Records
---
Amino acid sequence: MNNRATAFRQGSLLLAIESSCDETAVAILRSGTQIVSTVVASQIDLHRAYGGVVPELASRAHLSLIIPLIEQALDGAGCDHSGRSLDGSDAVGAVGATYGPGLIGPLLVGVSAAKALSLAWGVPFVGVNHLEAHLYAALLEDPALEFPAVVLLVSGGHTLLISMVAPGEYSVLGSTVDDAAGEAFDKVARYLGLGYPGGPAIERAAGAPAGSDRSPGRVRFTPPMLNEGLDFSFSGLKTAAVQYVDAHPEVPSAVVAAAFQESAIEVLVTKTERCADAVSARSICLAGGVAANGPLRELMAQMGRRTGRKVHVPSRAMCTDNAAMVAAAAHYRLLVDGPSPLGLGAVPNLGFPGAG
Ligand code: KG4
Ligand code: ZN
């Protein structure tokens, strides 16, 4: 058994699990960069009726999905259910899982499953910080990414501007002082009756991509804290949208959605450019669920062209929660820090690594 544990090296297979919120995902990577198989099961339909993620329902769904998804990922990688390749040439050499931040029940499902596999297969277990995992999305799709890079990590729970000098070497230069960007999209969408999840709903309602002729014209919300530093605030923008709807019920929700989206994106792009200037970044990366937003992707790419920086915009599937990014982070952590103790628990409020 232990020969599998000691054999983990750069070229080994690593299986990782993501279950921090409402996606159950399993992926197998070779060398931390080659995706051998990746499967994602979204629970969006389960939570839609409630307008948000219901933690208890999420835990139960993860529990029933986790084993079939692990088996599916192993099948996709040409491995049997003990993690050995069918031709006998290879075997999964380590197992990783997101251990925070996220919802406690969902996190525990993934962490427990990963530890069980680690024990059963006699391979190391490694706990992964979900926020760090998002940073690997761009790297996975473009291993030639040039450093220093600035990463805008925008998800349902976080809004961070991170300077990345190399994998594992980060500093947080900006964050939100109140709501996360995705949270604001979700709340405004809910108020406008556009449905869940809010980000895609706002984008759909807002219609045409940025840069096209269609502009909301008559409604504009001031981008919050646009000229101040690298921190963000989205709570005031959310309130401005809500108050506007209350005062102008005759204005179509699509117009308000477009104005909200335009303002939120303007502030995200402007601060990313400011941050890139401050650290003389050679490249800019987008990460997290909000990075699936079409106009944000387009305006960030335009800014990159204007300022002569390469902008890495991962595919939408790589921006939203998936296990390939977790496996990439796990591979790196395992080689640098070694395995995590099996006593590692789920940490719902885990911060960004190195950010206290
Ligand atoms: O990274 P993620 O999948 O899960 C978290 O770790 O939070 O991000 C989910 C967030 C949600 O708030 C969702 O509304 C937002 O990402 N989102 C979007 C879009 N797609 C997802 N926001 C704006 N535009 C989108 N197209
Ligand atoms: Zn995420």
Note: The pocket of zinc ion (ligand 2) is lined by residues 130, 134, 155, 288-289, 321 (CB under 6 Å).
---
Amino acid sequence: MTQIQHTVSLKALNSFGIQAYAKHFSVADSIEGLQSILNWQKIQKTPLLVLGGGSNMLFTKNYDGLVLQNALKGIDLVKEDDQYYYVKAMAGENWHAFVCHCVEHQYQGLENLSLIPGNVGASPMQNIGAYGVEIKDVFESLEAIHIQDQSIHVFNHQQCQFGYRDSIFKQSLKQQFIILSVTFKLRKQPIYNTSYGNIEQALAQMNITKPDMASIAKAVIQIRQQKLPDPKNIGNAGSFFKNPIISNQLFETLKQAHPTIPGFPINHTNTTKVPAAWLIEQAGFKGFRSGDAGCYPLQPLVLVNYGNASGAAIFELSATIIDRVNRQFNIVLEREVNIY
Ligand code: FAD
Ligand code: NAP
């Protein structure tokens, strides 16, 4: 039977460690259980928020509705051909544990995405990415249930409309579907991507001359542990802002005034991606702290909760940063974290 709890603290369920309460709360560990929770929600006419690992959200107030934690489990090799393994993971599987499973079984392609917090179900939401790899590079399809009529749909690659930290589920289908499972198309033969960031340097430090999946995963884990705050110790949701993509024209103008501005031209477009961390540092926020809300000293793109910051205080800091960066560089930073 479906269990609905009332007035539940979400503090341990969001990586920012923000104290906020859900008016109603339930956990779905089967599709039937999930359908029965959706029936209850429909009868109650209460708003619904789907929760995975809570590592990409900021609660600025209590949630006046039902928070549904997706805890569907299971990993299956559903098909293979000459070149690929097709691996289906249920939405409630922990992302990093799933990556480790793939590394162990030699299903190639996810190693650069090691140690990203959260669950499999949220991974297509913002087309998670790191060190030159995005979900879209290895995505085959996903299954999702429509919240209103409970019909189950399969979305292929094209239908997901993946973009930079973006998909159709953050745009026109926002809050309409619950992702149930994701199927990945993972290579049998390795094509390693070590050119990005300092992966090669980390491999050299580990004395690895012939990298494989496991050593790349290890290098990525090591780099991330050195640079990013562990939410177990310091509350955060990773990069708070997206890295802005601006016209080449604006980039050239900015370069004249700020010759050291870094930029990565995006192929076949007239645009350049500028690291938001650089802009935030130039605006004077690296290591900034006001009460328990701050900008992480080693990576200013990460806003942090040093203890008892409210979600509203973190949000306010983000608004101040947006304003300052805009005034200094004529670039409006966009929040990557989902605000509730
Ligand atoms: P949640 O925070 O629970 O949810 C995120 C959004 O997806 C919410 O809107 C929620 O309603 C929705 N949602 C969740 N599950 C489902 C579902 N099954 N169906 C429908 N909607 C759903 N992200 C990157 O892209 N790259 C990184 O390298 C990266 N590094 C990070 C490092 C740290 C230290 C932290 C804290 C975060 C990092 N992130 C990164 C952000 C975050 O880990 C990812 O966005 C992750 O995919 C969020 O997963 P989650 O399960 O925690 O989602
Ligand atoms: P980094 O390696 O210092 O890079 C800083 C910025 O430069 C990022 O905007 C990155 O873009 C860009 N960049 C670096 N090398 C590039 C290249 N060869 N080609 C194109 N763009 C390049 O960044 P970091 O903060 O240490 O993070 C490392 C990786 O993990 C990045 O991919 C980052 O996106 C990811 N990450 C994401 C989150 C999150 O919450 N979303 C949190 C932590 C780390 P991209 O961001 O597009 O890669």
Note: Residues 129-131, 196-197, 227-228, 238-239, 243, 264, 273, 275, 299, 336 surround NAP (ligand 2) (CB under 6 Å).
